[in-house]
């Protein structure tokens, strides 16, 4: 869940109201946010780097707010305030408008060449005109890009955002891909030019940028955007050029998003422009830009698409479990930035989904918003009338499983374990029990442990190529091996399972050799003529390998035949 | 109580009934009790023997009552005892000298020679004639009184009070006396005092019952302060005890258990079938254990798979879809299931292949996450999940059933927070008010499965499926006050905790 950090006083100023921490926490809860932490820069520095480093740091109160992972429109102060203001009916949701350049000028144009196809084939763009930044707005603008990069952009693998001072560059812009040796420019916050290859090694040690290098590192061609004078705007998804960097004084911003996923690129661009067009001379308007594909197709961005869904009040009422008129449901939805009207036909409601609400993809998402606006905790809790009879789990295919030869199975291997303890899915319960004894050597003897649980075995006949096997394992650890104790346990288990001793229909044990056990002290267990496991005195080598010192006997059987 | 000397049981209680009776006779004579040290002095035996006798008498019941007390007194050291017997070194030297004197070198050869000589010299009991013919010679000067010996003999007789402190300290400095703390008993008559010892029986026997001899016997009292003998029994792991309770609750509510015996699952059932997009971060190597062998699942219900592909990449069933390039290669990847919802998906798909009947399902089993391990995170844990499928289920129904479920756990104060989950909409986090912490704490997650998940399976349009889940470890840790999850789960489990943990009653 993404966490957005906002200055409390700035937030309250924007909301036009002061809250106590408890009141604001309550509002968050109702709206589906979580006031995760109340802190300050100073406090964070003290915690992370100690008191000395925090000397002189700001102690302005910060709210850290957890935002649902699909609500990209709440990832900055501007979006949070807008969402909450509309929710509290203090503000009407703005309408975002795409406009052509003033004075009939040509729109900015981004031309994609075919070389990008192999590495990062998509790009979208837009322009924010006559924006006014303050220090806080500027910081929020940078922070939103970072939040989008971490979330919808999946750490820049799917989408990377570049923002540029349009007055320092001139279109049309070219988005192409070149061998790293042929790319050379002065990147952001550096004092000289580097080739792309040099940059990749320069950033190997950069705590922030090194995480993105892998995205293009092994590609023969690196993505790169030039202006009409050959000035580098950016080398996505790694770094922008220094030349076009934005500052507090920037008035006109060219935004480009390059991507491997076009849908996400469009959403990302919509988010950036809808959130920050509020600071344009003409608020909530965004100047269009054209993107030309290698095949000559031309698209105009940002899409800022509004979509209308029609659904009935009855649908909402029935799914949520409330009984509201179509009008009041329309009002609930409008409070969630989904401008809604009763259509006049029966109880049908027309719901307009704005470009900020990319998370709304189905009527069920609208239904949820109605429920949130109604208040989850205002909904009457009722018991479903669903009549069912309970059953405990029974194994249906036991006979089938019995026919398989256990000895043919092999372990299932895990490809990405974080520690050596997780290399394979366990095929036996015995090591776990022996480790447990090793960790509990201080306990009085004898130790008698058992586990009935699943192990995992490869099995070609299953769709995933593996299956679980339910096993019983028990160990007896004492000054003497206690084979008779373990043997007695087998007898007792079989007695409880109503399996009588005997060669054919019952169970019996017979001498066997198994490397886990001491030679001559191991027997194989048969039930109804099928081998189900072993029992015996553990081999001294096994005992020492688990750092144990006493004799130990054990039984390990498949219990699926008896389930 | 710990005594300075352990008296062998046989000696004190059995062999010496005579001594016990002597002690009792002495106690009988005095009103108001007597000190065990005085008893020892009277009977002329070592005090520790009397201490043993007192303990034996105490074990007989209320014959005597004995109160422990401690006192300080003066005692002779080894050297002090020798002097009390044979006289002080200086006196011994003095007495060894005949009237005609003794050559000094000969005197020095005596056992007390050196010490006695210098002490007698300083007392001026003797004089040394260095110029004597044939070598230095020692002569007596006066007649003497051996006061050191006299004083020590007083102490030996228990009359140290007659000496002045200065004198005692002087003797202490000479290492002839030491001050010791003695633990003794103040012995008084008990409620069943008698001067004869009756042997007490330890236990009732079949013979006593048969002969009726129990009527005349005295029985040794039980020590009700002691713990009983621990029964020889097995112990269930707390997690299993809590699991049993949850299972019971589901069964009481009419839920059927799902077969969860498939830890290895394909990405298809674990994610795709749940409408969880292929770029979702949960599908990252950092969050999920992928399988290298067998790496891929090879069998899917083909037409269902096509419908899943379509709803992800293009939408349908009223949905816009995620509009990305859905790849079968991603869906085939095997993994260790990250949630039991994968099982629920298989069960719901199976349900959709038959004529629909309402169902209530539950499961409690292991799931796996590629977490960095710490005190609250493990790479595997147990998930508890409940699922209800029926026509016309509402969000209010979900809250109602959650209310019933948690009421059975003893949790009645619930509230719900809107949340996000890729496969449920609406999604709600369940919070309960924790009376101890005085705040709302999250106890589970819940939601209504998305139509994009249910309709491709083939479930009828009007059917809603509500579901919720929680972990088994968290309530168990809270229930049994365990702070480190590694003490609860895995081979580092503390067996003493397993032995000692009480039965699980979730509603208390």
Protein described:
Chain A: It is an enzyme of class 6 (ligase). Chain A: GO terms for molecular function: ATP binding; magnesium ion binding; phenylalanine-tRNA ligase activity; RNA binding. Chain A: Belongs to the phenylalanyl-tRNA synthetase beta subunit family. Type 2 subfamily. Chain A is built from 14 helices and 27 strands. Chain A is of the alpha+beta class and 563 residues long. In chain A, the strands form seven sheets. A seven-stranded mixed sheet of chain A has the order 13-12-11-8-5-16-17, with no helix packed on it. Chain A has a six-stranded antiparallel sheet with strand order 22-23-27-26-25-24, with helices on both faces. In chain A, α9 (326-334) crosses α10. Chain A is extended, with a radius of gyration of 33 Å. By secondary structure, chain B is α+β, with helices and mostly antiparallel strands. Helices cover 36% and strands 22% of the residues of chain B. Chain B has helices spanning 9-15, 17-29, 36-43, 47-59, 78-86, 89-96, 104-108, 113-122, 147-156, 165-173, 206-211, 238-252, 267-270, 302-313, 328-332, 341-352, 395-408, 451-457, 473-480, 485-488, 495-500, and strands spanning 34-35, 64-76, 102-103, 126-129, 137-140, 177-189, 200-201, 218-219, 256-257, 264-266, 291-293, 334-336, 359-368, 380-391, 414-421, 424-434, 439-449, 463-471. In chain B, the strands form five sheets. Chain B has a seven-stranded mixed sheet, sandwiched between helices. In chain B, strands 1-6-2 form a three-stranded antiparallel sheet, sandwiched between helices. Chain B is elongated. Chain B starts with 8 loop residues before the first helix and ends in an 8-residue tail after the last helix. The relative contact order of chain B is 0.09. Classes of the chains: A alpha+beta (563), B alpha+beta (508).
């Amino acid at each position: 869940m993404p966490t957005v950090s906002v200055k409390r006083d700035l937030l309250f100023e924007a909301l036009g109201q002061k809250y106590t921490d408890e009141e604001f926490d309550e509002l968050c809860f109702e709206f589906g946010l979580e006031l995760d932490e109340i802190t300050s820069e100073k406090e964070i520095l003290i915690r992370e780097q100690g008191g000395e480093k925090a000397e002189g740091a700001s102690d302005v109160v910060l709210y850290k707010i957890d935002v649902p992972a699909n609500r990209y429109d709440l990832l900055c102060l501007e979006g949070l305030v807008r969402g909450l203001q509309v929710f509290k009916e203090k503000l009407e949701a703005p309408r975002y408008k795409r406009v052509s350049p003033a004075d009939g000028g040509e729109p900015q144009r981004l031309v994609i060449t075919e070389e990008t196809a192999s590495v990062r084939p998509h790009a979208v763009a837009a322009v924010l005109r006559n924006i006014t930044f303050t220090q806080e707005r500027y910081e929020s603008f940078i922070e939103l890009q970072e939040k989008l990069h971490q979330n919808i952009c999946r750490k820049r693998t799917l989408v990377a955002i570049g923002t540029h001072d349009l007055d320092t560059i001139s279109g049309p812009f070219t988005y192409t891909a070149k061998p790293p040796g042929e790319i050379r420019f002065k990147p952001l916050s550096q004092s000289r030019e580097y080739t792309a290859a040099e940059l990749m090694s320069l950033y190997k040690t950069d705590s922030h940028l090194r995480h993105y290098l892998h995205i293009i590192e092994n590609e023969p061609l690196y993505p790169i955007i030039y202006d009409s004078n050959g000035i580098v705007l950016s080398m996505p998804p790694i770094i922008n050029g220094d030349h076009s960097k934005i500052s507090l004084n920037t008035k006109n911003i060219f935004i480009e998003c390059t991507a491997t996923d076009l849908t996400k690129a469009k959403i990302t661009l919509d988010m950036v422009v809808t959130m920050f067009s509020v600071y344009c001379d003409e608020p909530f308007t965004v100047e269009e830009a054209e993107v030309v594909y290698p095949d000559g197709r031309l698209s105009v961005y940002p899409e800022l698409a509004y979509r209308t869904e029609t659904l009935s009040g009855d649908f909402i009422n029935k799914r949520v479990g409330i009984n509201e008129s179509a009008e009041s449901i329309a009002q609930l939805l409008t409070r969630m930035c989904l401008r809604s009207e009763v259509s006049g036909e029966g109880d049908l409601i027309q719901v307009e989904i704005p470009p900020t609400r990319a998370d709304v993809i189905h009527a069920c998402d609208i239904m949820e918003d109605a429920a949130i606006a109604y208040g989850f905790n205002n909904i009457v809790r009722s018991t479903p009338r669903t009549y069912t009879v309970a059953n405990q789990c029974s194994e249906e295919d036991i006979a089938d499983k019995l026919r398989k030869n256990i000895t043919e199975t092999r372990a299932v291997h895990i490809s990405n374990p974080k520690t050596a303890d997780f290399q394979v899915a366990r095929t036996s319960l015995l090591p776990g029990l022996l480790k447990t004894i090793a960790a509990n050597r201080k306990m009085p003897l004898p130790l008698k442990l058992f586990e009935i649980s699943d192990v995992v075995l490869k099995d070609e006949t299953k769709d995933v190529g593996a299956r679980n096997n339910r096993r019983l394992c028990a160990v007896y650890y004492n000054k003497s091996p206690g084979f008779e104790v373990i043997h007695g346990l087998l007898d007792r288990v079989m007695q409880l399972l109503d399996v009588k001793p005997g060669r054919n229909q019952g169970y019996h044990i017979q001498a066997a050799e198994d490397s886990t056990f001491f030679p001559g002290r191991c027997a194989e267990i048969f039930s109804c003529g099928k081998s189900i496991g072993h029992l015996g005195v553990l081999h001294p080598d096994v005992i020492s390998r688990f750092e144990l010192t006493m004799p130990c006997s054990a039984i390990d059987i498949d219990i699926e035949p008896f389930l | 109580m710990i005594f300075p000397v352990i008296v062998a049981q046989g000696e004190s209680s059995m062999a010496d009934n005579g001594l016990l009776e002597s002690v009792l006779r002495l106690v009988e004579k005095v009103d108001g009790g007597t000190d065990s040290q005085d008893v020892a002095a009277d009977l002329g035996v070592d005090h520790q023997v009397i201490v043993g006798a007192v303990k034996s008498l105490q074990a007989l019941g209320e014959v005597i009552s004995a109160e422990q007390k401690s006192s300080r007194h003066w005692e002779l050291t080894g050297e002090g005892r020798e002097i009390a017997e044979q006289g002080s070194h200086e006196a011994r030297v003095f007495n060894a000298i005949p009237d005609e004197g003794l050559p000094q070198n000969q005197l020095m050869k005596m056992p007390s020679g050196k010490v006695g000589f210098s002490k007698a010299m300083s007392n001026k009991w003797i004089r040394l004639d260095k110029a004597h013919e044939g070598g230095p010679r020692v002569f007596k000067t006066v007649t003497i009184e051996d006061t050191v010996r006299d004083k020590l003999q007083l102490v030996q007789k228990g009359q140290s009070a007659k000496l002045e402190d200065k004198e005692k300290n002087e003797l202490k400095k000479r290492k002839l006396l030491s001050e010791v703390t003695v633990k003794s008993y103040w012995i008084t008559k008990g409620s069943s005092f008698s001067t004869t010892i009756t042997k007490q029986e330890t236990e009732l026997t079949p013979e006593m019952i048969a002969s009726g001899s129990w009527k005349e016997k005295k029985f040794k009292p039980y020590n009700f302060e002691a713990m009983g003998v621990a029964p020889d029994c097995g112990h269930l792991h707390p997690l299993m005890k809590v699991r049993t309770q949850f299972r019971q609750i589901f069964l009481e509510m009419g839920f059927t258990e799902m077969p969860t015996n498939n830890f290895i699952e394909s990405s298809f059932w674990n994610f795709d079938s749940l409408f969880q997009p292929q770029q979702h971060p949960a599908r990252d190597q950092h969050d999920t254990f992928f399988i290298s062998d067998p790496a891929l699942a090879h069998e899917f219900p083909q037409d269902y798979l096509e419908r899943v592909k379509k709803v992800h990449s293009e939408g349908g069933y009223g949905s816009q879809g995620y509009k990305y390039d859905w790849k079968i290669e991603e869906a085939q990847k095997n993994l260790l299931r990250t949630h039991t919802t994968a099982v629920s998906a298989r069960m719901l798909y199976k349900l959709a292949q038959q004529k629909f009947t309402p169902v209530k399902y539950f499961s409690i089993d292991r799931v796996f996450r590629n977490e960095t391990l710490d005190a609250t995170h493990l790479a595997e844990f147990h998930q508890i999940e409940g699922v209800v499928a029926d026509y016309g289920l509402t969000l209010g129904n979900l809250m109602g059933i959650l209310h019933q479920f948690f009421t059975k756990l003893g949790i009645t104060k619930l509230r719900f927070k809107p949340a996000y989950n890729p496969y449920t909409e609406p999604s709600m986090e369940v919070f309960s008010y924790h009376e101890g912490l005085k705040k709302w704490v999250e106890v589970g997650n819940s939601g209504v499965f998305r139509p994009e998940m249910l309709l491709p399976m083939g479930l009828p349009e009007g059917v809603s499926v509500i579901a919720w889940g929680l972990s088994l470890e968290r309530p168990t840790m809270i229930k049994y006050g365990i702070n480190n999850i590694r003490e609860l789960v895995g081979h580092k489990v503390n067996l003493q905790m397993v032995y000692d943990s009480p039965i699980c009653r979730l509603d208390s």
